[in-house]
Design a protein that fits this description.
Oligomer: single chain
Largest sheet: 8 strands, mixed
Order of helices and strands: HHHEHHHHHHHEEHEEEEE
Strand order of the largest sheet: 3-2-7-6-5-4-1-8
Length: 295
Amino acid sequence: MTELELAYTEHRKLLLSIAYRMLGSYTDAEDIVQDAFVALQRGHMEDIRSIKAYLLKTVTHRCLNHLKSFRKQKEVYTGPWLPEPDIEVYDTSLSPEEQVMREESVSYAILVTLQQLSPMERAIFLLREVLDYDYSQMAEILDKSETNCRKMFSRVKQKLNQGDNPTTVTDVQKSSGLYVQAFMKGVRTGNFEGFVHLLTEQATLVSDGGGKVRAAVFPIFGKDRIQAFLEGIQSKGSFGGELLEVRINGDQGLLLIQEGRPKLAICFGATPQSDSVKSIFFILNPDKLGRIRHK
């Protein structure tokens, strides 16, 4: 195995996970990671002190550049823009290694929350909170001073208000099954009162159809409006088909299959203190439902 092949085997998965979390798109993440390895191949590998650090720095900066150019595209996007979900067909028989990987996942809710940050703030958060890099390592990757990185991370923590935003799957995993079961019962009976009882008063439902399928163009706020919306679309047959329990970014969620194709992915964001649902995400854009992993 060549040095390049070894680097690809050892580091691709890490690089892809960082790029995906930065961008919210696996397609774009895969392109950027592939470009980073092409750049590595064209360079002088023997002069690079740390291949891993070089690749991580390259991917991070390419993501930052991509996000700056992508901002204009999001401004003309039809309706709310949500990240592409990482959907895994539900499987309870996990190896210890797979369980560790799942517990280190960033939940879909925090992936959505990251969209509130600037590209550089997003990079700061991921390097520190997910990879556990120290400030000297972060400074090297981002071409910033350690002091600057420390201050930026402090501001990011304040923006995210960590008390209300779980960062990992394990923060919400224990109670997410309750939301899934309550939602499925509402689909079966047409009465979502039990599910709505689990919502916070200020709960929000956000749909992403990307202008390609019918979806709510504006977020729906409040328990009563969410209940009316869910019961209304259920009565019109919008949930007709096969509703599967799946893993979405490591946490429990739902996937609606219609005519053999994924139609809708549903994720939930919880408030850790009360285990109440504060966010419901409907991903309907077919371009974002093509990545389903089977185990």
